[in-house]
Each structure stands twice: as C-alpha cells, then as structure tokens.
Amino acid sequence: MSYWRRLLSRPLAVVALVWLLFLLILSVGSGVLVPLDPLDQDLLALKQMPSSEHWLGTDALGRDVYSRMVHGIALTMAGVLEAVLVASVLGLSLGVSAGYFGGLWDRLVQQYVSLVQSLPTMLIMLAVLAVFGQAMLPAMVTLGVMGSAGVSRVLRSVTLAVREELYIAAARISGLSDWHIIARHVLPRIAGPVIVQMSLFAAIAVIVQTGISFLGLGVAPPAPTWGSMIFEASASLNDFPWLLVPSGGVVALTVLSFGLLGDSLRDTSTEAWSRPAVRQKVKAREAVAPTDVPADSLLSMRNVTIVVDGTHGREFKADKLPARVLVKGVSFDLKRGETLGIVGESGSGKTLTSLSLMGLLPPGVNVSAGTAVVAGEVIDLSNEARLAQLRGATVGMIFQEPMAALDPCFTIGHQLAEVLRLQALSESQVQAKVIELLEQVKIPNPDEVAARYPHQISGGMAQRVGIARALASEPQILLADEPTTALDVTVQAEILALIRSLSQSRQMAVVLVTHDWGVVADICDRALVLRHGEVLESASVVDLFHRPQHPYTQALLAANPHSAKPGDVLPTVDEQLMTLTGGAA
Fold it and tell me: Would you call 46 helix, strand, or coil by DSSP?
C-alpha cells in the first residue's frame, strides 16, 4: 500500500483534507460561488440570520458574511503560505546541514536556534508591523524566520539518526558528494517529518495571522479577513452572537484540520519506516499425504523449509533481496507420550521449526515447502486458517519467558478463564476448571494464586501458569520453547518433572526446544540435532549420548561444560568440529 493510500485510509486525515480542499475550491471559484460583493453594505439588512439571500447572514453594516468569509480565505492562506515557505526553507537548510555535517557548523546553528527561540515571537512581529505599517508580508516572513528555529531543531535530530544508517555510509564509501547524499538519500528519508512540521506550523500561522487582524493590524479595513470578522463579531456578541459562529468556526475548523492532517502525516510516515514487517500472503498449497508416515505417529513433519522473503517483510520493493532459507528439509516423527528434543546452537532454526506448526512465524518468514501430519490429518503449513484451528486446541505451547507470556493487567484466574470460555463452558464450570488446572500443575493454594496478578508470583510459578494455560484446551501435542532457561536450577528440575509427568499421564507428545544437553538427557526420548537450519542427526537419546554419528553432534557433546574438568579450557564447538573433521568445519 502506497504512502498516500495509507494516509487516505485514516478517517481524520480524509476529513481534514476534504475541509482544506473545500476552502481551496471556494477561494479559487469565489467569482462564481460568491454572488455578492464582500464590501457592499445593505443598511436595511443589518445583523440578519442566514437566509436564501444571505447564506450565513449579515454583519453590523449589512455586509454578506458568506462573501466576506470566502474572500478572506485567499488573504489568510496567502499569509500562511508565506510563513510556511520561509520556515520550511530556512528550517530545512539549517536543520539538515547541522545534523549531517555536525562539528562547528552544528554548534553555530544550535546557538542561533537557541537565540531565536528565546525571543518573544509576537513582540517581534508587532515591532515589524510598526516599522512596515499595514504590510502583512514582512510580518509573516518574520513569523517564518522565528518558527524556523523549532523546525530546524526537529529536523536536525531526525537527520542525526538518518546519518548513522548503513546506506549513508555505503554512499560515502562509493564516493558520492555530501550534497548528493543529502539530496538523494537524506531528504527522501526525512520527508515525512518535514511535511508534518509544515502542517503543524500552518495551523500556528492561521492563529497568528487571525490574531494580528483581530488587533486591527496587517490588512487594512474594510478588506475582509477572518481576524477582522472575529473582531467585529466580538463587538456584537451580546445582541447578535450568531456573527461569531461563521468566522470563529472557519478558523477553528481550519486550525483543527491542519493539526489533524499533521498528526495523520506523522503516523503514516512513522508507520512507513518503522512499522512491523509486513506479513506476506502465501497461497495455500494442496496438502499431499507423505507415504512414509508411521502408523503410530501422532505428529510427523516432512521436508519443512522456512524462508525469509526477499523484502524482509517490508513493502519497499527497491530493497528486495534474494530469499534466504532459514530451515531446510526438516523431518521427524513423534508418538503419543513421547518427548522429542530439538537441540542446536542459537540461530540453528530450533524455534522456527516449532513455531511453523503453530502458525506463529514472524512477519516476512514463511513456510515455502513441507507438510505436517497431525493425528492422521495432513496439514499444509502455509495454510494459516487451518493452523489457527490447531493452535491452542490440538497443539499447545509453552514460551521461554514465563512473565512475558502473561498479561500484567489481569489476574491469573482471568487469563486461564479467557481460554476456557472458548470451550462453551458455563461460568461455574470455567471457575472450577481454573482451580483444577492450577492443581494439576502443582501450584499450592490455587484459589489464592488465581486472584493474584503476574507480578505477585515467582518466575517458577509463572511458568506453571503458562503450562496450565497451554493445557486448558487439552492439546495432544505440547511445544515447549526452552521452558526452563529463565529459571533457577531447582525450579528447572521441578518444571521438567512436571512436563514429564503431564506427558505420561495425558499421553501427550512433547516437542522440547533446548540447548541444554542435561534437559535432553533428563526428559527426552529422542533428539534432533540442528545446525544452520538442517537436521544433522536424529536418534534416541541413549544412542545420541553414547554413539553420536555426526561430527557436529560429537562437537556439541564435547563442548558440554558439565563434562569438563575443573581448570581445563573448554574448547568451543567450532574448535571441536575442526579437530574431529581434520580442519574442515
């Protein structure tokens, strides 16, 4: 979706743009759309309410309010345009150059900005008007100069951040001149903040110009300006308050429109550059049942390949890179009541493999090939709708950070009940089931714990709650992503014993993602060794520990700190691998 389409998808932005466009049409077409002269006086029609002849009524001199308001648009917007142009040119030049070049020039600009911001803007403008008489141009130019200080400070901070981007460094290395880099790379990147600042400054300029005209300065009467109309309305406020509605309303709506437009532009610009990666839609494939699935298998994964798309989840196709394979051809089988450990270093693809079954891969990361067979049903892992049906029902998951998995705003009981209510249980059944789940995960005083908030329980108890929530829908398969990493040793043993007990009592298959060989030895029946997204070895835990076949598995076991002698230097996995393979890691 393009920048402007995202902007127009915001209702407030559309309302603001429609109002400003309406003013523009009125101003440009005033000769056709305004039948009466704004200076004509009708002494027989003083202070009249809206009618078919005078659409917004008349003022104290019988002049048509609608005509005066429409003709005031050009005078007001001309002054706003003058101030915005000066502020944008001066603020952009000073802010970008100071942020990009830094050094002495940056310090000088900052001193200038501090000096300008310390001066009272309105007093300076009144002094200019005293010198130049009723000329509005010098006053609005002065406003632009004074406002450029704040604009330059904002743009300087944005430029400082952009200057540190890697593509700026690459442009410098390529030999491009500084001004070329600013024009081609920096300015497009900060275009959003520039537009936002100008939109907000335009709202300020409308208020300032209206205030000057209200004081009787600037454009001389009887020329119609919004400020002079408000002044005239204030004089008749007691006996004819309607007169303030059109003039005050048009100023308020215009200022509000510029403000809303600025907010919408800011949000759209921020979204364009720092929004979460876009989830790419992948067309679901027709799932084909693998022919080599064992009859007693509850879960079988076949040739699962996971890639990050070429745009890395972004919408900017100019940044597109070749797709990168993260997990390649992973296959395994899992029986009821069996626990499979997936072992490997960080970045080996352990977590991605488990998340693919839950349909929880990060945006921009997709399953490009492979199927899963769950309880005899063939599942296409690119079919997000089907995976959503499995998630929480057939397949449950325990996450690595127990506290991060709980919402701090709700009690433990509320968060468990939220899952149970999806099962069409009565409220009394839900509350009873909450207590039952907490008892099943060996939490003492379950009634008290259910009434507590996450910050009121320990990390080990929070992980037990996470297990209880995963079991709430009675899944057949439980995925555990390093469930004991954030816990101390004693609590780790308790959680592992609990997972093993629940697996045996419920005949639930468990996929345990870990990097700890001790955990694998403790509760796993079989293990899968991953490196760089590929399965290097799959065997029973006994065979893996006593008869490892692959050099990488041997290197991992040799690098286990539990088997090292005190005082010995523990070799790294790469060192072990080079030793075992004769230097070919």
Answer: coil
Task: Give the strands of the sheet with 534-540, arranged side by side.
Answer: 395-398, 477-481, 509-514, 339-343, 526-531, 534-540
User: Tokens at residue 341, please?
Assistant: 């450990």
The SS3 of residue 325 is strand
Residue 550 Rama label (left phi>0; alpha psi -120 to 50; beta): beta
Say how many C-beta atoms besides its own lie within 10 A of residue 207's C-beta: 15
Compute CA 494 distance to the chain's CA centroid, rounded to the nearest angstrom. Answer: 38
Answer yes or no: are the C-beta atoms of 77 and 44 closer than 8 Å: no
Distance between CA atoms of residues 211 and 139, nearest Å: 12
CB 306 within 8 A of CB 326: yes
% of the chain with per-residue pLDDT over 70: 89
- The type of residue at 442 is K
CB 144 within 8 A of CB 83: yes
Q: Tokens in use for 151?
A: 């604009």
Q: Minimum mean pLDDT among 66-80, 389-403, 499-513, 517-531: which range?
A: 389-403
DSSP, res 182: I
Alpha carbon separation from 87 to 93, 179, 269 (Å, rounded): 10, 21, 20
- How far is residue 88's CA from residue 151's CA, in Å, rounded to a whole number? 7
Averaged pLDDT, 369-382: 88
- 244-259: average pLDDT: 91
- Joined tokens for residue 144: 């632009």
208-219: string of b/e by CB count within 10 Å (b at 16+)?
Answer: bbbbbbbeebbb
Enumerate domains of the chain plus CATH numbers: 3-42+61-272 (1.10.3720.10), 334-349+383-581 (3.40.50.300)
Structure tokens at 429: 């059944």
Quickly list DSSP for 406-459: S-TTS-HHHHHHHHHGGGT--HHHHHHHHHHHHHHTT-SSHHHHHTS-GGGS-H
Look at residue 517 in the predicted model and tell me its pLDDT. 87
Kindly state the average pLDDT of the residues 276-287: 52
Distance CA 31, CA 28 (A): 8
Check residue 420 and give left, alpha or beta (phi > 0: left; psi -120 to 50: alpha).
Answer: alpha
- Distance CA(272)–CA(189), nearest Å, equals 10
Maximum CA pair distance of the chain?
Answer: 109
Distances (CA, A) of 425 to 191, 359, 419, 436: 54, 26, 11, 14
CA distance 229 to 243: 8
Joined together, the tokens standing for residue 513 give 């993602």
CA angle 433, 436, 440 (to 5 degrees): 135
Q: With CA atoms as reference, report the closest residue to 71 among 114, 115, 35.
A: 35
Residues 6+ away with beta carbon under 8 Å from 82? 137, 140, 141, 144
168 contacts 185 by C-beta, under 8 angstroms = yes
- Strands 297-308 and 324-335: what pairing? antiparallel
Q: Give the Cα separation of 468 and 479 in Å (integer).
A: 13
pLDDT confidence of residue 2 = 67
